[in-house]
Specification:
Layout lengths: L11 E6 L11 H7 L3 E5 L6 H5 L12 E4 L15 E4 L9 H6 L3 E6 L2 H10 L7 E5 L21 H12 L3 H20 L10
Parallel strand pairs: 1-2, 1-5, 3-5, 3-6
Antiparallel strand pairs: 4-6
Helix pairs in contact: 5-6
Length: about 200
């Protein structure tokens, strides 16, 4: 990738960031958005709907049926037995029938950025998220992010790692996933060298 050029993703990545996360020195949302051509980071607690959260990032009206959100429920992805890194589920926590078609049909995905508790607060404060498709992650490799911040569950990835996995599976762009992973590795190396870098345990 040329210096200054952004990665040309098809799937739009919308990141809703809890205000407290904005002050977290090991947050990765801004890094992800800085690297992707079609991405937006908004900070707050609630928005009236998906279109308002997107603001002017998308020129045409969005169809909520073609958007998904990374779901925060009690579903254990590995228990679904699909062996897929990204799994589309229905409202009952069951895997959708045609996984590849479901993922290809998505126009965008919403990621909730913050600690586990903060992400759950965003989920409950924005009921329009219930209208979106639901995705869960079943990463095949340990999170790189655990080197600077502990997460409560194996499938709880950093925001940039989650975005990379979504683009790998929905856009079939392993190159973008690799570029995001490499950027995260460089960022982690820098973050770990900072004296007294905070490491926040899950609530």
């Amino acid at each position: 990738m040329e210096s200054g050029a952004k990665l040309d993703n098809r799937l739009f990545i919308l990141i809703l960031q809890h205000p407290r996360e904005r002050h977290e020195s090991v947050a990765t949302a801004e890094l992800a958005v800085s690297l992707l051509r079609r991405a937006r980071l908004v900070v707050g607690l609630s928005w009236p709907n998906l279109q308002r959260a997107l603001g002017d990032a998308e020129d045409t009206p969005v169809d909520a049926r073609r958007w998904a959100v990374l779901h925060l429920g009690s579903v254990r992805p590995r228990a679904l037995g699909l062996g897929r890194p990204v799994i589309a589920i229905d409202r009952h926590g069951q895997a959708e029938a045609d996984q590849p078609a479901m993922l290809r049909a998505l126009d965008g995905a919403v990621l909730l950025d913050g600690s586990w508790r903060e992400a759950k607060a965003l989920w409950w404060r924005n009921p329009w998220l219930l209208k979106l498709r639901r995705l869960v992650l079943d990463p095949q490799h340990p999170a790189r992010y655990h080197r600077v911040r502990r997460e409560p569950r194996r499938e709880a990835l950093s925001t940039i790692e989650a975005a990379a996995l979504l683009l790998q599976e929905c856009d079939r762009r392993a190159d973008i996933a690799t570029a995001l992973g490499d950027a995260l590795d460089r960022w982690i190396a820098t973050a770990r060298m900072r004296p007294g870098a905070p490491r926040r345990d899950p609530p």
